[in-house]
Amino acid sequence: MNLDGNFFELFDIPVSWQVSLIDIKNKQRSLQQQFHPDLFVNCSNNEKRLAVERAAKINEAYRVLSSPLLRAKHLLSIYGHDTNNENFVSSDTAFLMEQIEYREALDGLSNSPDPDHELERLREKVELAYKELQKQFGDFLSTNHTNDALKTFSKMQFFSKLLDQVCLTEQKLEDL
Amino acid sequence: MALMQISEPGSRVSNTNQKKRAIGIDLGTTNSLVGFRAQNETIIINDDFGNVLVPSIVHFPLEGKYLVGKSAEIFRESDPKNTVASVKRLLGRGAEDVVEQPLSYPYELDLSDERFLKIRTRRGSFSPVEISSEILKHLQNKAQSFLEEQVDGVVITVPAYFDEAQRQATKDSATLAGMNVLRLLNEPTAAAIAYGLDNNEEETIAVYDLGGGTFDISILRIVKGVFEVLATGGDASLGGDDFDFAIADWISESLSLKIGKNTNLQASVLSTARIAKEKLSNPSNHDDVNIEFMSKTLTLTREKFSKLTELLVRRTIKACRRTVRDAGIGFEEIDNVLLVGGSSRNFNVRKEVKKLFGIDPKYDLDPDKVVALGAALQADVLIGNKGANDSLLLDVIPLSLGLETMGGLVEKIIPRNATIPISKSQEFTTFKDGQTAMKLHILQGERELVSDCRSLAHFELRGIPPMVAGSAKISVSFRVDADGLLGVEAQELSSGKKTSISIKPSFGLTEEEITRMLRDSFEKAEIDHEQRLLTESQVEADRLIHDIQGALEQDGENVLDEQEIKMLQLNIKDLKVVREQSADRNLLVNLTEKLMKSSETFAERRMNFSIKKALSGKSLDEVET
Asked: At B259, which CATH number?
């Protein structure tokens, strides 16, 4: 096992799209019970600093593995794909249209007679589509269709952002 | 990388077997408390007047020592300009944060230094950090004279919703007071520890903490002694003080008072309002309250009081809703709600909280003391007095950290509610051909625009090798430690050039300022600064030797060969000799560093070995190295 390796190795689980959320939560907890900086407050400054680094890595591993989008990105980078500066779906006009529709639906909410209800319906629709994409991503990855996986990842990015915006809109409605 | 002390899960590393003394401090807006863990109970220390609550007030008299606590409070009405209360609201705040609220601060603010505000008194202008430091010193002295022994470490509580600048300012105050801070602990987490809900079962709780000047709501899950914060939210400038302001506004309106810049009048209206609020918040009182002011009588009915504070309570309820959603759970999953903070006694608060969560909130422990009790308990655990099955805390960062990008937008690097410590790297590239420097602007907050977030720091990365635009690769890593404090390191990947800075909020104290203030205070106390530095280096050397020896005993043979063990032992011996026989600080520091370097490989192998062990749950012999 290598500490400087990827997060799957750190948590001693197979490099795979499928992860058990309960399992990784337990792993995070049991590792922190051994490495958390609170266990090193009486040690030398150097070790205190190291303890922070280690614990930070364990928490970051949990954060990445538990989030579908971050886990997908991490898997792609393990397979040698830099997802930072590329856009794989810019030529996908159907998806572009879909994006525009979703955005218009979100922007149009403020004129709706029942924005709360509309927003809830939109949220359900977005969540469903996002889940479906995640399933596709897992399938593409496990069957080595990496290009398709990359395209799906790009779409997942859009839906993840959209969900954030849905939450923000929800907050704004509540604050009114 | 150097050596890392590895302990069995649930056990803590302590350098000596000797019992050490640690105290817990609840540094509150209105009142502060200090406590410690005795044999079988946690004790909050009384002051000379028999009170556990020390008013967080500092008075600057014409001459002589500054007064803190009850003896300072006496001057609150008669000499408001030289009597500073509620300074916690100004900690980590810049001039621009101080909204002109005529009733809020009945003392004079000095805004001449735009970097950070000060309070002008007859004894000079003081920063909120310096004033907090006076309160901390007072509390530590109180503990030391009660215990009749030195205090080795301290846990200080902060509102969970405190941002980076406010946390840093709190820590600076403690450094300035000469304290060894074991941990900045979030107040709601401290309260949860005090209630001690670790009964080996899984439990989800909400802690509603309404103090004098801050409001916090935290959702925690407790599993087998691990207290894990799922989400935290709140309002760092909403508290009981605001209830006072609301009542004071109503009094001055009803009596058509012209307050203007009359600080004495301000102070007495505020204090009348405070007394009325306390009467109304007393659970045994069910009547309206008569207010006598300037020979006129006003009646503050419970209905009127509810009306005046309704908006404030509603703001807290809104924050609760949002935080439960952030935690990713439903209200039905919450098993218990704890009420913390003096202002949670407000009958309206209790009613609304019960309505929201659908369960009767708990307040068995005195809401004024509960945070200090938790801090004292955790201080005792951290200093190493408690062995197995103690509690481990996993806290979160309350507000997202981000960087300014093109067009005045903020890109989030570490999202709010991420478990700390946490680190994250982000790669950047140059924008122009031959660009050799890059400016980074670090912000905290949830909004998209730079202007809506709190600016934490600006820093510049210089010496990037000139390249074509877009080809330099700069990796910037952000690290948030267990106190919620941020450190940043930047590296140009093609040249390997490293810059590391620890973030100081734009209006916080710089490292030099703290050193200077410390030195000044030493000079006053006639303590030799050099002697102190030497002692610090000696302690560091002792710790390192102890750590490595312990590690060698435990794992040396598992991960090192004979030759490697010999080398390490030789370096330990060298350091020991110098430590015992020489007062040359430079030599001591050099040898300490040498030992640290020579133990790097050992540390690395040992870490991997123990992670493997931790995950497999197997005994030592079963693990292959």
From this structure: 3.90.640
Report the C-alpha gap between B434 and B463 in whole angstroms. 11
B286 in the same domain as B232: no
Among A27, A42, A175, whose Cβ lies nearest the Cβ of B384? A42
Residue B293, both tokens: 């002011």
The ipTM estimated for the assembled molecules is 0.85
Burial letters B247-279, b for 16+ CB under 10 A, else e? bbbbbbeeeebebeeebebbbbbbbbbbebbeb
* More confident: A147 or B536: A147
Token pair for B22: 């640690």
Which site among B4, B542, B612 would you substitute to test the A interface, given the most A Cβ atoms closer than 10 Å to its Cβ? B4
Distance of CA B516 to the CA centre of its chain: 23
Task: Select from B5, B223, B427 the Cβ nearest to the Cβ of A84.
Answer: B427
Look at residues B535, B541, B557, B570 and name the one whose alpha carbon lies nearest to residue B602: B557
Q: Using an 8 Å Cβ cutoff, are B349 and B316 in contact?
A: yes
- Name the residue of chain A whose CA is nearest to B389's CA: A33
* Domain extent for B584: 539-622
CATH number at residue B224: 3.30.420.40
Same domain membership, residue B39 and residue B129: yes
Contact between A36 and B547 using a beta-carbon 8 Å cutoff? no
| B70 has catalytic annotation | no
- Does the active-site annotation cover B187? yes
Helical residues (DSSP H) of B75-186, grouped into ranges: 128-147, 164-176
Q: At what angle do helices B187-195 and B370-382 cross, to 10 degrees?
A: 80
A50 → closest Cβ in B2, B153, B223:
B2
- Residue B340's pLDDT is 94
- Among B475, B486, B371, B474, residue whose Cα is nearest residue B418: B486
Q: Is B573 a catalytic residue?
A: no
Superfamily of structural domain A93-175:
HscB, C-terminal domain (1.20.1280.20)
Q: Delimit the domains of chain A by residue range.
A: 7-66, 93-175
Query: What is the distance between the alpha carbons of residues B334 and B231, in angstroms, rounded to a whole number?
Result: 13
Of B9, B420, B423, the CB nearest to A30: B9
Query: How confident is the model over B539-576, as pLDDT tens digits?
Result: 888 888 888 888 888 888 888 888 888 888 888 998 98
Binding-face residues of B in 280-299 toward A, CB within 8 A: none
pLDDT of B10 strictly over 70: no
* Residues forming a β-bridge with B478: B424, B488
Report chain B residues whose CB lies below 8 A from the CB of A47: 2-5, 543, 547
Question: What is the rounded average pLDDT of the residues B445-454?
Answer: 83
Q: In the numeric block, which tokens belong to residue B538?
A: 């000696």
B473 counts as catalytic: no
Q: Distance (Å) from the C-alpha of residue B481 to the closest C-alpha of chain A?
A: 6
Q: Which residues contact B414 (CB under 8 A, 6 or more apart)?
A: B397, B400, B401, B422, B424, B478, B480
Confidence of residue B11 (pLDDT cuts 50, 70, 90): very low
Per-chain mean pLDDT for chain B: 82
Q: Answer whether residue B580 shows pLDDT above 80.
A: yes
What's the topology of domain A7-66?
Answer: Helix Hairpins (1.10.287)
Q: Quick one: pLDDT at residue B298?
A: 83
* B618 CB within 8 Å of a chain A CB: no
**Are A12 and B182 inside 8 Å of each other by CB?**
no
Cβ-in-10-Å burial (0-12, 13-18, 19+) of B9 comes to: middle
Rounded CA gap, B613 and B559, in Å? 13
**Is B231 found in the same domain as B260?**
no
Which are the contacts of B300, defined by CB distance < 8 A and separation ≥ 6? B247, B250, B276, B280, B288, B289, B290, B291
Cα B431 from chain centre: 38
Whether pLDDT at B170 is above 50: yes
